[in-house]
Amino acid sequence: MTVVHRKGQREPKGPEPQSREEQSAAFTPPVSSSNAGELSVPKADVSWNGRNVEIPDHFRAYLGDKLSRLEHFDDSIFRFDVVLYHEPNPRRAKDSEVVEVTAVGRGPVIRAQGTGENFYAATELAFDKLQKRLRRSKRRKQIRKDGQHRATSLAEASAEAMPPIAEVGELDDATDPWDDGYDEYRPGQVVRVKDHTASPMTVDDALYEMELVGHDFFLFHDSETDKASVVYRRHAFDYGLIRLA
């Protein structure tokens, strides 16, 4: 379908939102799933955010049970941010449902994203990634607790590297991460500004935190040079470093 303006100009019409039937199908539990037993509830607060998606109660209970299982990796986690949305691109029909989960605790923010043909499949993928990153973070904390202060090498930091996540930035509050506060867009307009507190860290620590959140780059304060620096992932499965002169 197209929209015709008075001057005769045509522009493509944006994708139509999912119908109630389509949303209901996206939240249908798989046949192999079992609801036997009482589902656990996480101790941490959970921030739910459905982007044009109404999250049913049965799925909240299912996802809450999986979140509670992650808490034993890090008992300092005090909030989980959960975002669900539908990718309307017809070419991505097999991974059109997206689940993003962010764990916020005393350590670095850990985030993972999963996609699938329904929200249950996307959740399984997201939690598999998140579990690996939480386990890696727990091992690193244990090394430091035992008195071994050796920095993680680049090979170790990239050993369990996850695919990059399209959305850059962390869900650092309970507000809608898709609401940038601008109702009208203009070319070249800065639509989002985020301020982050930064503690000085080494390049290896910056690479480690970049891998935990699954981003392609990470801005940090280099403790060795006292300069603002950026580490980034290259296509050749290695890393790059940019420093301000």
From TrEMBL:
It is found in: Cytoplasm. Signal peptide: none annotated. Its main location: cytoplasm. InterPro entries: HPF/YfiA_ribosome-assoc, HPF_long/plastid, RHF-like, RHF/RaiA, Ribosom_S30AE_C, Ribosom_S30AE_C_sf. Pfam families: Ribosom_S30AE_C, Ribosomal_S30AE. Residues 188-241 form the Sigma 54 modulation/S30EA ribosomal protein C-terminal domain. Keywords: Cytoplasm, Translation regulation. This is Ribosome hibernation promoting factor. It comes from Gordonia liuliyuniae. The gene is raiA.
